[in-house]
Amino acid sequence: MHGKELTEHVVFGLGWIYLILVVMNAAWTVRSYKSRRHFELPEVFGGAEVPTAGIWAAYTAILMMIATAHFTGASNPDDFLLTMPDVIRNWINLMANPVSFFAASTGLFCLMIMFRRWLVQDHIGWLLLNASLVFTALSMTDYDFRQIVGKPDNVPIVAMLFIVGFFTWLYFKKAVENDDRIDQGRPLLEQENNEKVLVWPDLVYTELICMVVVTAGLVLWGIALQAPLEEPASSVKTPNPSKAPWYFLGLQEMLVYFDPWLAGVVLPSIILVGLMAIPYIDFNKLGNGYYTFNQRKFAVITFMFGFLPLWVAMIILGTFLRGPNWNFFGIYEFWDVHKLEALNNVNLSEYLWVYSPLNSMFGGLPTAPAGAGALEGAGYIFLREGLGIVLVLMYFFALPPILAGTVFRRFYLRMGFLRFMVLANLALWMASLPIKMVLRWSVNMKYIVAIPEYFFNI
Amino acid sequence: MSVGDYIRNSQIWKSIFRHPAPYDRRNRVIVMLTNFFLHLHPVNVRQQGISLSYTWCMGGITFFLFLVETITGVLLMFYYRPTLEWAFNDILALRDVVTLGIMREIHRWGAHAMVITVWLHMYRVFLTGSYKPPREFNWVVGVLLLVLTLLLSFTGYLLPWDQLAIWAITVGSNMARATPFLGHEGPGYQILNIGGYDLITNASDARFILLGGRFVGEETLNRFYILHCVAIPLVVATLIAIHFWRVRKDGGISQPL
Ligand code: HEM
Fold first, then answer.
1. What string of DSSP letters covers B137-151?
2. Alpha carbon separation from A21 to A128, A135, B234 (Å, rounded)
């Protein structure tokens, strides 16, 4: 509708992706054949035992046919049938919004941790990899998806998704294995085969190979994709959307919920200070120098929550799903500049003074009479925003002692006052983003404390 | 005597490499101790310290990417002039005129890759608990390196001087306007005033210092160019040296006690 759905080029390129999938899965079939694993068919099919290799072989054959179809059918892109079905596209576009995105990423995060034992099986990992690759390939048949994902600068972000996914999986695999070993009193993975070896040749050659591979990768990447260069800079033509470099898009996304002084200055500083503080507040002596989950659940969950849903997922959101006017767009949706989104966010003080019985008693927000001095003006502001100020102060000053006395009592006793306070404050800062998000989505909360007179909005 | 032996026994070769070829155990030890580039490493390590599935090799790749960026960056500097008149045109020429012109591509993709590998390196260091004593301080050095890597990338983003560049930097640096006390739209800036005159205005606040002006212009280009090509790389190189030094002084790559 907005552009040509498919071109010869794209179909042909996708053929290559499927061909790579064929090769990958052929290798996997061989591996599976050697392992002699069997798979029991459901009763309906007679309950027979089939080697899993058979299933992978069949899947590989289907991929082979799909790849061939792409190579032979490329000349007629308009009639090409192997595309992402419209039903799915429309459904995903319809479901996509910041709320469901955040809920989904957080939900997946929880599922991943709960079902880590199931997840770390080799064939499950392989299955997920295949599913995500096929999904990406199918999505590439959509014009709008290609427009965003295919931007040269965005390619590394797509790659990053797969890489981060892989390493997270690898971590859980090793951690689960080690946790079992610890329970059974066996030596850790890292303690096996840990004798001393000479750096030359063992390490030096590994490094050499690594350098060659990275260089080759960069050269290929450089030949395949040209570095972007847009029109010459013009300070009058503002692009819409204007986006910061991709690695800051998590921060830019926070601007939706916080004012620049918080999202752009205070929160990033806190993130950095918080990162630097980690070694000094983590009092847990266990889990130093090996992968484990059970021995340091709190630390791992907190760090991963910060890294996966709050950092990586926010970058994805900011890069792929935020279009003109920073509106939200589904992955298959056209970036319409005229898309309108009703914004009727309300400050806490307005809830208190305007949308409550207080309105009829005091006649709206307390405002300083004309000609009032600075001090008197400030007094009125405190009156107006008093509730929000008290809430924020309580959040940062009353909550930590309460936590220390209740849920986190054991932490507090082991950490001591200073460490605990630092930890609690950092955790509260981190939690402030999801809290503000939920407030925004549920009750259209704009600012908890709104003092635009002094650029002080929280 | 083979040609190889002949060369290795020549006076010139021996004057450069102060040891025989590392073919036997003794010389494999000596090479690590006498070669400038290799003495970064210890002579021997525990198997785990070099296991790919343990370190993910991400620190090493980050370092290698830093070297790649340095080399391609120097090559780019031969062609690039950081002025409003030339910046964009030089980049165009790099693409259209320069033979084998993929230096800019390698530099840009290498920069993206470096950001990702730094994150993954930090991720693995966290997940193996390698920041715990005695490595706390090296983690702090690491966080500084992380920030500087991002800043390197950010300052470089402006240099092509196209629409992508100036608006990304504009959006990014607009935040500085809101710095508490030091930004002219930040909370509390009114406090810094003398006799009714604000000290913090749009021509004196944090953003102005960053940009060298009230908007992204020629001074900004100059400032970012120097930060990108000289100032930050020097700091990063120094910190990397400290980082590696500490890895060894803290007992090598972490491992179970
Ligand atoms: C320019 C950026 C960086 C470079 C070039 C770099 C390089 C390296 C290298 C080569 C190692 C040896 C082990 C390995 O490869 O994993 C290492 C270890 C280490 N790095 Fe980094 N690093 C960087 C950034 C960081 C960051 C962002 C952090 C954490 C916030 C960090 C914390 C550490 C720690 C604690 C170790 C010791 C790990 C251990 O003993 O297992 N580094 N770094």
1. HHHHHHHHHHHHHHH
2. 13, 12, 44
Ligand 1 centroid to residue A428 C-alpha, Å: 28
Residue B6: left (phi > 0), alpha (psi -120 to 50), or beta? alpha
**Which among B86, B89, B112, B224 is the top mutation candidate for probing chain A, defined by the most A β-carbons within 10 Å of its own β-carbon?**
B112
Residue A3 reports pLDDT greater than 70: no
Q: Are A200 and B38 in contact (CB under 8 A)?
A: yes
Pairing relationship of beta strands A196-198 and A49-51 according to DSSP bridges: unpaired
Q: Is the pLDDT of residue A1 over 60?
A: no
What would the two tokens of residue B2 be?
Answer: 């083979």
**Which pLDDT value is given to residue A183?**
95
User: How many Cα atoms sit within 13 Å of A277 on the Cβ side?
Assistant: 17
Q: Which 8-state DSSP code applies to residue B202? A: T
Average pLDDT, chain A: 89
Percentage, residues of chain A above pLDDT 70: 99
Q: Would you call B116 and A159 a contact, using CB atoms and an 8 Å cutoff? A: yes
User: A238 pLDDT band (50/70/90 cuts)?
Assistant: confident
Host H or E run for residue A38: strand A38-40
Query: Which domains, from first to last, does chain B contain?
Result: 1-36 (no CATH), 54-249 (1.20.810.10)
CA distance A279 to A274: 10
Q: Rounded to the nearest 5°, which phi and psi values hold at A42?
A: -60, 160
A106-123 exposure pattern, b = at least 16 Cβ within 10 A, e = fewer: beebeebbeebeebbeeb
Instruction: Give the H or E element holding residue A145.
Output: helix A143-149
Cβ atoms of A2 and A334 within 8 Å: the answer is: yes
Residue B239 at interface with chain A, using a CB cutoff of 8 Å: no
Residue A174 has pLDDT above 80, yes or no: yes
Helix (H, G, I), strand (E, B) or coil at B175: helix
Say how many CA atoms lie within 13 Å of B12 toward its Cβ. Answer: 3
C-alpha–C-alpha distance, residues B182 and B190, integer Å: 10
